[in-house]
Amino acid sequence: MQTVYIGDDGLIRCEDYDVEILGGSMGAHYMFCYTRVAGIMLPTKDGIFPRTPEGQALTEPLLVSIDLSEIAFA
Question: H helices of 1-74, where?
């Protein structure tokens, strides 16, 4: 299952999903600090946190952290 949350600006802010290949682990993937690259809005910071069986995102542990800079399309 996957749920995507979109902000008033039309950008994806969060995506909740279940990872079936990892025994049904549930994650909350947050995307923020968007920047425009070649006319495309891309998040430069991402964080993935676990979710409880009820679907509530936890604030820790931070499972994955992604910070992008100097983005270009070739």
Answer: none
As a whole number of Å, the end-to-end CA separation of the chain is: 34
**The pair of three-digit structure tokens given for residue 44, joined into one six-digit string:** 């430069």
Separation of alpha carbons 48 and 13, rounded Å = 12
- Residues making up the chain, counted from first to last: 74
Contact 3, 29 (CB under 8 A): no
Single out the residue of 34, 6, 2, 5 nearest to residue 17, CA to CA.
2
Write down the pLDDT at residue 22: 63
Say what the pTM is. 0.84
Structure tokens at 42: 């891309």
